[in-house]
Design brief:
By secondary structure, this protein is α/β, with parallel strands linked by helices. It has twelve helices and ten strands. It has helices at residues 12-29, 66-77, 90-98, 110-118, 125-130, 133-138, 159-168, 196-209, 237-245, 256-263, 313-316, 320-327, and strands at residues 5-7, 33-38, 51-57, 83-85, 103-105, 181-184, 213-215, 249-253, 268-271, 289-291. Strands 3-2-1-4-5 form a five-stranded parallel β-sheet, with helices on one face. A five-stranded parallel β-sheet has the order 7-6-8-9-10, sandwiched between helices. Helix 8 packs across helix 12 (320-327).
């Protein structure tokens, strides 16, 4: 079979989750792939043994009317090859319509998610919990979803990148044999971000305990973080992966870096609020752990509502003390 083409345009976490599925198909069928994604997320796929070529699309490429021409040219250039659509949006439906070869799509379960929300969890909960997102991706090809542990994400770092991650930590005031705890206090969707006061208190508790820590990610920088510990907006995507690899655990909300940490073998302590297991994004590594408050109103939407009648109790109800207790298992 000619080399398949896989399309997943966004977001960071979804592209990271795709990496384990591509590797599974390489191990199982010997396939390698051309991957179409956004330029910003292409570095996730560098060094991936199943990826022969990455086509990174810019913001301009995905804006109309240019998008139609770009997709038509891609369809012409890869005529006869199989397209595996792991995105399932109107954009990739357009690409599928122009494609000159067979098309496979993943089990997005969009209708089931909407009915689950509409029924306040009474409909399709079992079906949504059956497969996480990598398993749903795999169902684009497989008749039966592989086990979750067979599809864990993986980012391949070079020895030079790993050494660069260690060098980045040399600025820490308490650098020692104890690897630091990484904190990611940012979120693309603000309703998935833990309270800033909670992060500040957690940092204080780590200081009191003598646990080295750093802050990673991209976002509006928090006040009061010592410069030596703050890597906010300072590292590239690959450098962030290398930095995470040197940490003992990442504490984060439902975010892209949550999946990057798993992809470099770093366990995750994840704080979930408006999103729940049914959406398929819970980390699945052997040492990953999720903290959540079991409220009947969860999930309230795909990403959370800006106007929450309960003042985001689902997320803010997780206390720094609870996080510290959960952290004991990693210290």
């Amino acid at each position: 079979m000619a080399e398949p083409v896989v399309v997943r345009l966004s977001a960071l976490g979804d592209v990271a989750l795709m990496t384990g599925v591509l590797e599974y198909w390489r191990r199982t069928y010997g396939w390698t792939f051309t991957v179409i994604t956004r330029q910003a997320f292409a570095p996730v796929l560098e060094g991936h043994p199943a990826v022969r070529r990455v086509i990174g699309l810019s913001r301009e490429d995905l804006a109309l009317p240019r998008q139609f021409d770009v997709f038509r040219d891609l369809a012409e250039a890869h005529a006869g090859r199989r397209l595996i659509d792991l995105h399932g949006t109107m954009r990739t439906r357009l690409l599928s319509a122009l494609w000159k070869g067979p098309v496979s799509r993943y089990a997005k379960l969009g209708l089931e998610r909407r009915l689950f929300l509409w029924s306040k969890g009474k409909l399709f909960g079992e079906r949504l919990r059956r497969w996480n997102v990598p398993q749903r991706y795999a169902l684009a090809v497989e008749r039966v979803a592989p086990p979750r542990e067979a599809l864990l994400p993986h980012v391949w770092l070079s020895p030079e990148e790993e050494a660069g991650g260690r060098r980045l930590l040399e600025q820490l005031p308490d650098l020692s044999e104890d690897r630091p705890v990484a904190l990611h206090p940012y979120a693309t969707h603000p309703d998935k971000a833990w309270k800033e006061d909670h992060w500040t208190e957690l940092m204080g508790r780590l200081e009191d305990r003598g646990v080295p820590w750093i802050v990673i990610g991209r976002g509006k920088e928090m006040d009061g973080i010592p410069a030596a510990r703050d890597y906010t907006n300072r590292t590239s995507l690959r450098e962030t992966c290398a930095l995470l690899r040197e940490c003992r655990v990442l504490i984060t909300g439902d975010s892209g870096p949550m999946h990057l940490a798993g992809a470099v073998g770093t366990p995750v302590l994840a704080l979930f609020g408006p999103t729940t297991r049914e959406w398929g994004f819970f980390p699945a590594g052997p040492r990953d752990r999720v903290l959540e408050v079991p409220l009947a109103c969860r999930p309230c939407s795909l990403h959370g509502k800006s106007r929450c009648a309960r003042n985001h109790a689902c997320l803010y109800g997780i206390t720094p003390e609870q996080v510290m207790r959960a952290l004991e298992g990693y210290l």
